[in-house]
């Protein structure tokens, strides 16, 4: 399994971190589910607008498939106005995981 880590800063003068997470859930997550090899995501945020998304992928190829063209840059372009600066992104191989069960809010 592979993970992509995206670090970002939401411009909280334009949208609250809570509303940005809800926007992700409502507008981006359904399309993310359609991406080949998608295996899940963690979305983390602070009230100040700092955020991290860890998306999980079945293969390294799936983790990189939408990177240079396609899904990822299209999403960034569509929502660029809510970021303070362009998000950073890296890919990792998942060496170990133990995640707690968290209720969706």
Automatic annotation (TrEMBL):
InterPro entries xrefs: Dimeric_a/b-barrel
Protein name (record): ABM domain-containing protein
């Amino acid at each position: 399994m592979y993970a992509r880590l995206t670090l970002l800063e939401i411009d909280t003068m334009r949208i609250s971190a809570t509303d940005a997470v809800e926007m992700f859930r409502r507008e981006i997550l359904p399309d993310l589910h359609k991406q080949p090899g998608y295996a899940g995501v963690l979305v983390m945020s602070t009230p100040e607008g700092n955020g991290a998304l860890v998306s999980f992928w079945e293969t390294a190829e799936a983790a990189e498939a939408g990177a240079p063209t396609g899904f990822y840059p299209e999403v960034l372009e569509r929502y660029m106005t809510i970021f303070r600066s362009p998000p950073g992104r890296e890919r990792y191989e998942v060496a170990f995981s133990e995640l707690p069960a968290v209720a969706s809010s």
